[in-house]
Amino acid sequence: MPDAGHFKSATRWPDVIVGVGCVLLTAALAWIAFAPRSKNVDHDLVIQQQLRSIHQAMLLYGFDNGGYLPGLNPDGSLFTNNPADRYDLLVNGNLLPADQLVSPADARPAPAFSYAISDLSEPGDRRDAWTVEPAPDAPILAESPAAVGRAPDQWSGHVLWHRPYLTPGIAPRINPESATPHTQHEGAPRLRTRYTPTGPHQESDHLFTRAGPDDAHLIAERN
């Protein structure tokens, strides 16, 4: 019978080290594969997808509404400025599932919608831009301050821009090489925007009207 010294001398420590290393590497790879992903990353992807879905539904509505997006009549006059009513036009018209209106980042108990929509209460640049025709530098949808639990002057969130070169089926009007993202995260409640081809960017544009229910109105009034 071999003695203990035989087994001791037969042990190959490099093989043991390699074996242990393989086990640890396998465990690490399994953890990476199955570890939960960052909720913020998931939320960002879902929010961008929802904004694009709403935008597409708005365009489909507009093609059957004289070219005007929800809130305006086919002749361009005001139909309703209420955000809930304007979203209802999309949901009741079977153009958009209602769950696409609620952001995963919205912590309110039972929000009907999480996204601000452009304020059309007054005639002017915003109404003129509220069509299926793209308007460079015109933000038309955004996370509302209430949805992200912030006051309008402390807001940051995702904005969808009515970009011409990213709107399917519509010919681009500016160089696609200068394109910025269709949806992007903005870190401040003031944006440089313009609604007319000749209008300058305004550093003092405010994104939202005020706190409360009306923070569902997105605004970028030119001075």
The radius of gyration over CA amounts to 26 Å
Largest pleated sheet:
5 strands, mixed
Average pLDDT works out at 74
- Number of beta-strand segments: 5
Distance between the termini: 98 Å
Number of helices: 5
Indicate the percent of residues in helices. Answer: 25-40%
The SSE order reads HHHHEHEEEE
Structural class: alpha+beta
> Beta-strand level of the residues, as a percent range?
5-15%
Low-pLDDT regions? 164-181
Shape: elongated
User: How are the strands of the biggest sheet laid out side by side?
Assistant: 4-3-2-1-5
Report on the structure:
- By secondary structure, this protein is of the alpha+beta class.
- It has 5 helices and 5 strands, in the order H-H-H-H-E-H-E-E-E-E.
- The protein has helices at residues 4-10, 13-34, 39-63, 83-92, 125-128; strands spanning 115-118, 139-143, 157-161, 183-186, 217-218.
- A 5-stranded mixed beta sheet has the order 4-3-2-1-5, covered by helices on one side.
- The model is unreliable at 164-181 (pLDDT under 50).
